[in-house]
Amino acid sequence: MRAKEPAGRAEIARSCGLSVQAVSNITEVLENDGLLRVVGQKTGVRGKPATQYSINPEGAFAVGIELRPDALICAILNLKGECIYKARVALDNAAPDMAIPAIESAISLAITTSNRDRVQLLGVGIVMPGPFGVSSQGAHDDAILPEWDGVNIQQVFEDALKCAVIVENDATAAAIAERVTGVAASIDTFCFIYFGTGLGLGVITDGHAQRGAFGNFGEIGHIITQAGGTQCVCGNNGCLETYASRLSAKRSLEEHGINLPDGFAMETLLADENPVLLDWIETASTHLSQAISILENIFDPETIILGGAMPDTVIDAFIARLNLPVGSVANRENRTIARVIGGSSGRFTAAIGGAAMIIHNTTTPSLALYN
Fold this sequence. Notes:
This protein is of the alpha/beta class. The chain has helices at residues 9-16, 20-32, 96-113, 153-161, 170-181, 246-254, 263-271, 275-299, 312-321, 349-363; strands at 36-42, 50-55, 61-67, 71-78, 83-90, 121-128, 165-169, 190-195, 199-205, 208-209, 303-308, 340-342.
């Protein structure tokens, strides 16, 4: 139905190999549950006009939550994947005993504000920065959530929220959001460099997200782009994250006595052509250019998308200043899309991705479950 709507019962039966009677029984149940709706009748064919069905966007919804060290982002998508609510809540402490109650409250407010009925909630996608289950990458890293190491995240949230929960790292969720509702809707294979608190990477290959053995696929922030470079909290020197992340921008500006409380302040500084910020953008772009070349030659993506919590104007400034190496498999004359483009979902992209995962899992069940 999602692929062919609006569609009639006979058309659905032909497309999926079921009998018309079986499809009639299924559509009746889905219509009674409010998940499908009648949208008219198809005329111009012999016989009785065929009733046409489509997905009812108001029939169910999913919640996405992105948890950051200093904030949580909440988004609600309806059954058709349309974002109908989004909000940001500041956090003083993202440790479990503080974050979980804050998330419960945020979800309750979101459901009430968007006039949803909780019985229609399909589940919650919880999105967090990685790495998961790894304590060696810097216990003092400001991009890592405090006190979550060793916690069974899915179980904790399922117990607290009393619903189905999916847990994903922020960069992968952001890539899924762009695939479902953003600039990558028609792109099957791409890389997404995600500017959260730190720096992450989501990779979609043939429409499927890559996750790695332990859910830590895409820790691009800790690849080394400068041998013997800036000390990183992970223990390395010269990590990309120390040159091209929101944290690195904040630290660079603070060294010159400039406070950077949020993205709006960064936008203002860029509009004013602040020389300290412009110098940081130049340096960050140099390191991003090197990282992008690595990604192109390893993954051979259709394009690389930059996005997340970094302001769009800063993303555009990065792209304008990139010096992409000519020695790359992506450097082709017959390209139909630029090697690097900006995302469209903004700072809510990871939370939207969390909700999109719930919608996707609901409307595209795994056949393995029924074997």
